[in-house]
């Protein structure tokens, strides 16, 4: 993807005016039209089991109805079970619930095909008309999406409301190649890498450049430019020392490509075809020091329509999969050892993006290491996710459910009572034993076991992707507590309850010895 020649795109004037009225505490109503479309490559979307239920992750935005001025129009591919909607409204206080339903409109396209939701809406003029009617004049309405592409911009144009997100002409910054350019412009450390990889030959040349930069390198990571959640990554290991002759080195590296390990487990030939279609990068595989593996923290930011950069949160990402690079969950906040350092580096990148006209939420992933004395031993920027992501909605839930504020100096969320909040979150809690649980069954279970958010203590689990349970045996949960250990203990309790309640072939299912690929003992 080539950079736009118009990098100075200014924030939409109407969005800026709406932002000013909301931030000023104006009594004027405002409408958020939420279209949680994952507008990515169709082939990649088709591989995600239960992709349509990812649209339920942003149902936490219904908590926006705590504000009596707020209205929400929420659009999905398939209908959301009424009990699921009621569950989110039940997280409001009794006073807040009184007229929240009146200010909520749920719409759907009745289309389960593995295509972007935005595309489905644009195909349905009557659905567009219904959204327009609920929006009304649209003076204080805006479009909220998971990511922004020309499709989302077209939808905003047809609805005649501003898009609350990065202009699609700037989304190249969120590619793997664009991220590296932004990091370099911000003078933020990044591992050595080569961009513009489009073929096996390019990959060989890139590997040659890596080994010329550091002759000791024996491992590299290849990344598709436009992929997400680590699904476009592949690890490549090769034997050292390489032959001294240049042509022999080239042949040795070419043979090593046959042993490429894509995160999805797909054949090497299929991965190389996608590399040719999407382009990508190859980077050195970063290693830890003193036997301590590198961790993968991230920083969430927002650039408001006025161009101000705000640090929202930090997280420790939980990565799994065949090559250990697939995102499956997160902990908030990130480790205190490097929390301030990654916030500082992220702010530098944020300023570069603000100067280019980026607006909206995004995240920056890092690799961070510690030494034997638990001191920072290297921080490297990895990529920019110029969109919402897996860490977005857990923090949205925390912010709307817990009175308080994020303290950038400490990197903690401090409640109005002084409690330092933490959470463990995932949308990948799954088991074959959970399949067949209808929403009614699930809500009966959590009520019976007290797995509910307690507004008096501002702690408890909050569930999402509930619609995926019956067919796919999968659900998400955000465990909010007064500390990281308490949050993980809460998560283990959720797992234990579901495992105990669910049976396979008439017998109780044996609880797993691991949670999200991590030994339970390591979470204590």
Mean pLDDT score, rounded? 89
The description of the largest β-sheet is:
10 strands, antiparallel
Number of helices: 16
Unreliable segments of 5+ consecutive residues: 1-11, 517-524
Radius of gyration: 23 Å
> What's the CATH topology name of the largest domain?
Rossmann fold
Strand fraction band? 25-35%
Helix content: 25-40%
What spatial form do the alpha-carbon principal axes imply? globular
Helical/strand content category: alpha+beta
What does this protein look like?
There is one protein chain. It contains 16 helices and 23 strands. It folds into four domains: 13-165, Rossmann fold, CATH 3.40.50; 192-284, no CATH class; 288-391, ATP-grasp fold, B domain (D-amino Acid Aminotransferase, Chain A, domain 1), CATH 3.30.470; 402-524, no CATH class. With 524 residues, it is α+β, with helices and mostly antiparallel strands.
List the helices and strands and how they pair.
Blueprint: H1 13-23, E1 30-35, H2 42-46, E2 70-76, H3 82-90, H4 94-97, E3 104-108, H5 117-122, H6 125-135, E4 141-145, H7 150-159, H8 176-185, E5 193-197, H9 200-213, E6 219-224, E7 233-237, H10 246-256, E8 261-262, H11 268-278, E9 280-284, E10 297-303, E11 309-320, E12 326-332, H12 339-355, E13 360-370, E14 376-385, H13 392-401, E15 404-407, E16 412-415, E17 420-430, H14 439-448, E18 460-464, H15 469-472, E19 474-481, H16 484-501, E20 503-504, E21 507-508, E22 514-515, E23 518-519
Parallel strand pairs: 1-2, 1-4, 2-3
Antiparallel strand pairs: 5-9, 6-7, 6-9, 7-8, 10-11, 10-13, 11-12, 12-17, 13-14, 15-16, 16-17, 17-19, 18-19, 20-21, 22-23
Helix pairs in contact: 9-10
